[in-house]
Amino acid sequence: MPNSNSSSSRRRLIVIVTAAVIIIIALFSAFVWPGWAMKDNGGDARSLQTQSAAATPTIEASALPKNASELVKAFPDAVANYARTGVEATKDWESAKPVEEYAVTYSTGAKSKDVAMVIGQWSNSSGAKTQYDKLTAALEGDTLAHGNVKVSGANKGTYVVKTDADDDAKAVAVWQNDTVVFQVTGGKDAVMAFYQKFPM
């Protein structure tokens, strides 16, 4: 008559070994091949790194003039991946009698993606509104965006972005923020990305 204790021990050993083998196979298939249990963060991490890198200019911002006004000092060194590469006084809007007016260029380092700005300040918001209305009335392209400019929840002006009437690959954004008017021109994609990030 066989030893029942020995037989039971053998069966228990077989069950334990079989269970261990199944667990090892499951772990191997989950984490080594094909890796279904491992969360793939590679794509997200690469995407995040790309976005972070894209948000930082690859070129240095130009220095501001030594006698820069408070308005000029407020021009950011960088906007997303654009660096300020030039600031000079201009008279584009001289007939509207701004207190001060500047031509400002921002670049990624690729000249074809440069955006050109004209920024003017008036002594009061009504003067700025008059210039804003004049500029926007002259825009004839398709409207890409428009709305209100709000600062701390208060409405300080309006904005509009339109394609260039002569070249729909280009665009113009114009906005008024209280006493200051901004105009940005450049490639459509560049303008759309730039104006939304500009902090003034």
Structure overview:
- This protein has 200 residues and is of the alpha+beta class.
- It folds into two domains: 4-52, no CATH class; 59-197, TM1622-like (Protein Transport Mog1p, Chain A, 3-Layer(aba) Sandwich), CATH 3.40.1000.
- The protein has five helices and eight strands, in the order H-H-H-E-E-E-E-H-E-E-E-E-H.
- An eight-stranded antiparallel β-sheet has the order 1-2-3-4-8-7-6-5.
- The longest helix is centred in the N-terminal third of the chain and has 28 residues, at 4-31.
Question: In short, what is this structure?
Answer:
The chain crosses the membrane at residues 12-36. The protein has 200 residues and is an alpha+beta fold.
The structural class is alpha+beta
Helix share bin:
25-40%
Q: What is the H-and-E element order?
A: HHHEEEEHEEEEH
CATH class of the largest domain: Alpha Beta
Low-confidence stretches: 1-5, 28-53
CATH superfamily name of the largest domain?
TM1622-like
* Alpha plus pi helix count: 5
Q: In order across it, which strands form the biggest sheet?
A: 1-2-3-4-8-7-6-5
Averaged pLDDT: 83
* Strand-residue proportion: 25-35%
Q: In the CATH hierarchy, what is the architecture of the largest domain at level 2?
A: 3-Layer(aba) Sandwich
List the topology elements.
Layout: H1 4-31, H2 42-54, H3 70-73, E1 78-79, E2 82-89, E3 100-107, E4 115-121, H4 125-137, E5 143-151, E6 154-164, E7 167-177, E8 180-187, H5 188-197
Antiparallel strand pairs: 1-2, 2-3, 3-4, 4-8, 5-6, 6-7, 7-8
Q: Keywords for this structure?
A:
Protein Transport Mog1p, Chain A, single chain, eight-stranded antiparallel β-sheet, disordered N terminus, 200 residues, 5 helices, 34% helix, alpha+beta
